[in-house]
Amino acid sequence: MKTNVTTLEAKAAGEIELADAIYGLDPRSDILHRMVRWQQLKRMAGTHHAQDRSEVSVTGKKFQKQKGSGNARHGDKSAPQFRGGGKAFGPKPRSHAIDLTKKFRALALRHALSAKAKAGDIVVLDATASAEGKTGALKKQFATLGWKSALIIDGAALDDGFARAARNIPHIDVLPIAGINVYDILRREKLVLTKAAVEALDVRFADVTAKAAEAK
């Protein structure tokens, strides 16, 4: 599929071909859901911890007589039913991460790109360059382009002035191509790819594109 290329000044800069094998899939919500869940679980710290009865600081002395008190036969105040006692079956540090194959994660990324393309929310930008490096000037350019919520993906390296100017604009994220991910694509309204990012994705999925061409 062909799409127009624009500049930050909202001027036309030609056309570019987007591979159907990458941007033309029929998006599946189940694949996207599994991938977003994988990302969210992977980033959970898993440092939650509650003290059990072996860790609380209480006396180990028997606090009442075995018989004659009219109460149950307790031996230790660290039991969970007492105030200051240990937590029964409390959370312990652990990893929440689940497993997804590398092949599945690559497929999910293509489905996320296809979902944006199908919705008409992919924009191809000629280049990200901000000579002034000022947030106010870049914000005006985004307003002209109609970008209120956008993920901007550049090539292998970000333009320092552009990244610095964009980081203070709400709902705008700027990442190098190495940082592209399904969660950030879906959480923003627009996906803005530079020509360098499109080329990098073509290289990344070259084998997929080749197999699709052979199948035709």
Fold topology:
Layout: E1 2-6, E2 12-17, H1 20-23, H2 29-43, H3 102-118, E3 122-125, H4 135-145, E4 150-153, H5 160-166, E5 172-175, H6 182-187, E6 190-194, H7 195-204, H8 206-215
Walkthrough of the structure:
Part of the 50S ribosomal subunit. GO terms for molecular function: rRNA binding; structural constituent of ribosome. InterPro entries: Ribosomal_uL4 (IPR002136), Ribosomal_uL4-like (IPR013005), Ribosomal_uL4_dom_sf (IPR023574). The protein has helices spanning 20-23, 29-43, 102-118, 135-145, 160-166, 182-187, 195-204, 206-215, and strands at 2-6, 12-17, 122-125, 150-153, 172-175, 190-194. It folds into 2 domains: 2-44 and 97-215, Ribosomal Protein L4, Chain: A; 47-95, no CATH class. The chain is built from 8 helices and 6 strands, in the order ββαααβαβαβαβαα. The chain is an alpha/beta fold. The longest helix has 17 residues, at 102-118. It has a 6-stranded mixed β-sheet. 22% of the residues are buried. The model has no long low-confidence stretch (mean pLDDT 93).
- Briefly, what CATH class of the largest domain? Alpha Beta
* Uncertain regions spanning at least 5 consecutive residues: none
Oligomer: single chain
SSE class? alpha/beta
Count of the domains: 2
Tally the helices: what do you get?
Answer: 8
CATH topology annotation of the largest domain = Ribosomal Protein L4, Chain: A
Largest sheet: 6 strands, mixed
Strand line-up across the major sheet: 2-1-3-6-4-5
CATH architecture name of the largest domain: 3-Layer(aba) Sandwich
Counting DSSP E segments of at least 2 residues, the number of strands comes to 6
CATH homologous superfamily annotation of the largest domain? Ribosomal protein L4/L1
The helix content, as a percent range, equals 25-40%
End-to-end distance, in Å? 15 Å
Report strand %: 5-15%
| Gyration radius, rounded | 27 Å
